[in-house]
Amino acid sequence: MSVRIDIDRLSARIAALGRIGALPGGGCKRLALSPEDAEGRALVTGWFRDLGLELHSDQFGNTWAIRPGRGGTTAAPVLMGSHIDTVATGGLYDGALGVLAGIEVIEAVSEAGIETERPLAVAFFTNEEGARFQPDMMGSGVATGALDLAAMLAQPGIDGMTVGEALSRIGAAGPEPAGALRPSCYLELHIEQGPVLERAGRAIGAVTGVQGISWSEFTIEGAAAHAGTTPMDMRRDAGVVAAGIVAEARAIARDFGPPQVATVGRLQFAPDIVNVVPERAQLTVDLRNTDDATLRAAEARLAERARALAEAEGCTLTQRSLARFAPVGFDPDLVEEIAQAAAGAGLSGCKMPSGAGHDAQMFAPLCPTAMIFVPSQGGVSHNIREYTSPAQILPGVQLLAQVALARAGHRQDRT
Amino acid sequence: MSVRIDIDRLSARIAALGRIGALPGGGCKRLALSPEDAEGRALVTGWFRDLGLELHSDQFGNTWAIRPGRGGTTAAPVLMGSHIDTVATGGLYDGALGVLAGIEVIEAVSEAGIETERPLAVAFFTNEEGARFQPDMMGSGVATGALDLAAMLAQPGIDGMTVGEALSRIGAAGPEPAGALRPSCYLELHIEQGPVLERAGRAIGAVTGVQGISWSEFTIEGAAAHAGTTPMDMRRDAGVVAAGIVAEARAIARDFGPPQVATVGRLQFAPDIVNVVPERAQLTVDLRNTDDATLRAAEARLAERARALAEAEGCTLTQRSLARFAPVGFDPDLVEEIAQAAAGAGLSGCKMPSGAGHDAQMFAPLCPTAMIFVPSQGGVSHNIREYTSPAQILPGVQLLAQVALARAGHRQDRT
Questions:
Q1: Which residues in chain A touch residue B215, judged by CB atoms under 8 angstroms apart?
Q2: CATH of the domain at A109
Q3: Looking at beta carbons, which residues of chain B come within 8 Å of A194?
Q4: Is residue B412's pLDDT more than 60?
Q5: Complex-level ipTM
Q6: What CA–CA distances, in Å, run from B42 to B39, B58, B96, B99, B400?
Q7: B254/A266 touch (CB, cutoff 8 Å), yes or no
Q8: Are residues A24 and A164 in the same domain?
Q9: Residues B72 and B180 in one domain
């Protein structure tokens, strides 16, 4: 392959974007549609422009840039994409890597004088993280029709401002309709955000799909009571029920075995006073599995046990689904192509599912889609210590370039 | 007995005091040394003055009023006391009842033209609740020498102001030294704040003492990790350890049996995000027992199990004692006297320990001390729905008058 990826240029762009919303101690905070996000968008769009690409943005702020193929920019492009928003304590690589690697691939392809049959494109999608506005993967969901535009514009954020207001505030809404972007193929390079590659000593993950995700919120209502004066047999302790649900989530993961995972990330007591039996407890359970039937079995067991625990304590229980994504399978041919290319390049790779959600999963129903993972040091992500070294990034970008060019119909310039 | 308790007059005083800091829907908020507390102090002190009593207050704001005995006001009085501060969502009876019943007893005794050998006195103590300034029972602790005056004056409140500053702000500090009040006998009428009397259908509790109280705070440090990308066997989940400690506290209460109680009132996760394994969890465990050796056994079992749970999860655990009061026994003769008097008056009574802390426990080492409980409807206290009816209060006040007069050396006026 005659394309030469300039890892220093890419690293410089990662660092430059990371300076926007930089946090003390490292990492950055660029919540979706915040002033920092606006600044990040301007920087990245400037790079699109510097490369002479054709700029597009839709009414939801999703932004993409096209390098013409042999027939210009009208054919469905091979799209490389991800996001540039972050969580409140984000790192420099989650999302940003996929977008900036797409820029690097296009710049390297142009430097190599390569003409492709199909256009190459690079995109960033609005609000992948869901840290300010729920749900996550919102922009790619709107772009692919999985989420309703009007409903998403009306979603309020954690600060009370709606998505629509925030888009207007920073002038991020573009002229094109939400469904305007129609790629022929979607590729996303991303850090793993987990410890699997590092632990296995592998350089590349050919991502087979995304685990199904089930988020439930349980609210338990008991009775506040004095910790000293209330006999145990007269208590209706919402906290004891909540603790039982935490234990059950762990037991489900143990009994079902990998790839089943279960996490209680949020748990709150009210009134949360040392000497008052909790009147109310609220917790979330995050269940994930690559197999939808198994995931449903996990959900059913958890719901049944929660109900029984609440009943035994004389508490009421309400359960609410916060999010439910069925497992998504990526295109087997494209996944195999990535795995073969990795092997051909002498890289240690493996096929693996993604434990996290990504914009790619929104495109999977529309066109051949796959992802390439590179390792996250210590498995750390959504954290200012998130890190993947330039030496770990480079093979991922080379692979991205190779597969993107193959799918775009690589033709060496004949001049 | 020739003393006639005027329950309507007492009810009117309870209502009048309850209007200060009144909350929507009932109850009131008079945090210690707040402007509302200042207003409450002025109202109650005015009633002291109306009865022609000799007023005293010490440098910590503890305030008492003396009705002379045969030898004037110099002999050690029979003291009836409690507090008039409340928690943030307090009721009208907790504390206020003991103080206003003391006023009623003295007024009724005077109306009956009774002369006593010893003086009768009524007192309210600063900051019994500990809702604004920790620890609770602070004023009675300072008055009896159990707590250090200078250290308590320096204690910061939840709003950052120290006790000393708050005393000055509302002008509550008096001229007398902290140890000036030395009763010959201490009696406190209080609502039970629990459901035991109501459930047993009893009108009066002759309180044998106060349960020992052990408050521990456990802090668990694990590692934040992505809920989707982190295999279960690589997790160090602080929340799972916390939930295990909640379950163990409940198991200890079950295995030890009554009167052992165990409560986890506070529990917090960090970062408390749906899809992040908790990095940190903090919880409190409140253990109580009337027997100190049993309480120590409960503490030891909990600490050992917490350590094992943390170790199994690869987390670190720190344990801190927030408060520790050994069980307090009241004067057996005085308790028996109350029980006998109740029986003599045809009241259904029982001897019982107090599950909550009270000012009385501070006086127990100094002089014969006991408490009288009247029922709390539904066992509800520290809540705007706290309620004890006038018909339930009346026998308690009559008993208080009878025992106080007996201890003061009741002599009918000879005129």
A1: 274-275
A2: 3.40.630.10
A3: 226, 228-231
A4: no
A5: 0.83
A6: 5, 15, 14, 14, 25
A7: no
A8: yes
A9: yes
